[in-house]
Amino acid sequence: MRRRDDEMTPARHLRLGGTSVVIDTPAQGLPGIVYWGPDLGEVSEEALVGLVTASRPQRVSGGVDEPTRLTLVPLQSDGWQGTPGLVGSRAGSDFAPAFEVDELDGAEDGEGAGATLVVTADDAEVGLRLRIELRLDVHGLLHQTLRLTNTGDDVYDLHELAATFPLPHTAGEVLDTTGRHLRERTPQRHAVTVGRYDRESRRGRPGADATLVLAAGTPGFGFERGLVHAVHLAWSGNHRVSVERTVTGSTLTRAAELLGAGEVRLAPGESYDSPAAIGSWGDGLTELSGRYHRLLRSRPQHPASPRPVTLNTWEAVYFDHDLARLSALADAGARVGAERFVLDDGWFRGRRDDTSALGDWYVDDEVWPDGLTPIIEHVTGLGLQFGLWVEPEMVSPDSDLARAHPEWILRPGSRLPVPARQQQVLDLSNPAVTDYLLERLDALLTENDIAYLKWDHNRDLLEAGAGSPAHPAVHENVVALYALLDELRRRHPSVEIESCASGGARVDLGILDRTDRIWASDCIDPIERLTIQRYTNLLVPYELTGAHVSGPRSHSTGRRHDLSLRAGVALPGHFGIEWDISSLEPDVEAELTSWVAAHKRHRDLLHRGTAVFADLPDASMDLRGVVSADRSHALYTFTQVSASASYPPGPMTFPGLDDDRTYRVALAEPTAVLGGPGQSPLPWAVDGVVAPGRALRLGGVQAPVLFPESLVLLEVTAL
Ligand code: DGJ
């Protein structure tokens, strides 16, 4: 059966949220995207045909007879000689499918689901069916999901099924991030050349080195300008995202789950569903990331209440759990204005350090002889919510759980995988394991007044096998984790969950579908955090990004910083404190109190507005901010990251304002500009300065002279 709902139209035009996607739908072969980017407006049928014709290459000597098109799943059967969109076989045969389109279904729903095109295609001879869904949402994001069904009589081994997005030929520079524990999201850039550039995770979780988006754009693109496209894979396991340029003139980006050998073996009738690959574009990274932020903010489960200021016990006490000490910490938290108290690692049976006890999710009756009730009642009595740390997917070999159920541990065969942080990973694909975890978590949440779980995950999944004989099981583990979280949330809908993974090693839109914030990094040194938070913000808005004020000396870098820098850098995020504040000097406690108050004063703007970053030519200067949706009001921070070569450092420019309005820029409390020897006062320090929005964006205002590693807050208000 071959049915096309409009035989006459050789192309479809999806338009929504400022984005156009034009899809070539030829009579033969799979459809392909011929345009993805800024809205084209109404396009006549003639111009649509023209766009398709314009995308068709000539035949060339030495090439295939029918010139190659870049389809949604490029294959050799189309003459494609770059990376194929589908790789798999039936014990070596049926390796080269050639799909014929069965159905092409389009729907336009500007209000809800968006504009969609669903392609169903078959290759009866190799026994495969493909379903490709393209959905353009109201934010202008392009979602692609693929399903492969084995319609043959034998097992089909799937190796890879990728979503493919074309890039403009002007995309000459790639930006992605790498990283490690304590320094996630380190940006790196390079030129696009012929060949393929891959970023992969083989860690069973995205990893600290994962790039949240893989972006490619006009060389030199920044946050404020330069056409740039990017893709994100909404998946918490192994994956590969790539940018590829071929010798036949195609440039593309692709995203796929990275499957282990034998990881997905489809029995007759079985299907594999790819995670969603979500593409964005922008004139600058701010516009590109704004689409992801709006998608997250439009979800029904997006946190609607003000994000509670959090006091986390980890860097305050580590494993030293003691009711009196923690009660004093909570008292201090209440005094400075904290609203949530999170008891971190160390509360459960036998957990005195990080070498043992993961899996034994019962309250330790030596440390907590009366259970958690005394600390919970103390915390909630102060008016704070109580949160608890857990790491459910993990098990310590030295634990009652591992002794009772060694068969519950993921392993490649008879031996255990290489240890990491003295722990192993549970096989969540075994229902007995998830039943146990669900029972324990459910009991903890039912028996105690817990408003929040910090859900940690502190090792990579290496050699992660399940079953007998063992097969790679990362995919199954991720699917089972999602189901576990979904069920827990169904049972406890008011409990918020944080995704933490050795800091920021599990940040993706799959986990964020079922959690309420991410922990961006275990490093809370504010200088490191400037970069970590800037590049985390490419995908995740501030209200979902945990950002804490550390003690004066960073535990991860050893550097010392003023409270104003530590707090000012954390200010826009889901703000918190991770520092033993139980016996601060009164002036320090007062200063911290004023920062908590400043965050509360501004959090509505910070957590609903548009995050912006200035493209300043001097890397020692950092200006970033959040602008209200109506652009009447904004809060910026200017940070002198290191000593500038210029003295004074020069102007700071303000992105995101309305070019046609006039604004007042003023220094905001609790920061202040202190003069130094030989310096005159900042001319606008007292009354602020009034200027047109366009001039603030293009010319800017002379930045104050600050010590290196210090910051000021700036409030900008339309007149
Ligand atoms: C890693 C997390 O990132 C930290 O914040 C802390 O919760 C520790 N684990 C506890 O083991």
What is this structure's SSE topology?
Blueprint: E1 11-16, E2 19-24, E3 32-38, H1 45-55, E4 86-89, E5 100-109, E6 114-123, E7 128-136, E8 142-150, E9 156-161, E10 163-166, E11 173-180, E12 183-191, E13 195-201, E14 214-217, E15 227-233, E16 239-245, E17 251-257, E18 264-266, E19 271-273, E20 277-283, H2 285-297, E21 310-312, H3 314-317, H4 323-336, E22 340-343, H5 373-381, E23 385-390, E24 394-395, H6 400-404, E25 424-425, H7 431-447, E26 452-455, E27 465-466, E28 471-472, H8 474-491, E29 496-499, E30 517-519, H9 526-536, E31 545-549, H10 563-570, E32 574-577, H11 586-608, E33 610-613, E34 621-627, E35 633-640, E36 651-652, E37 662-668, E38 689-692, H12 693-698, E39 701-702, E40 710-718
Parallel strand pairs: 21-22, 21-32, 22-23, 23-26, 26-29, 29-30, 30-31, 31-32
Antiparallel strand pairs: 1-2, 2-3, 4-9, 5-6, 6-7, 7-8, 8-19, 8-20, 9-18, 10-17, 11-12, 11-14, 13-16, 14-15, 15-20, 16-17, 24-25, 27-28, 33-34, 34-35, 35-40, 36-39, 37-38, 37-40
(2R,3S,4R,5S)-2-(hydroxymethyl)piperidine-3,4,5-triol binds at residues 314, 344-345, 354, 389, 456, 458, 500, 502-503, 519, 522.
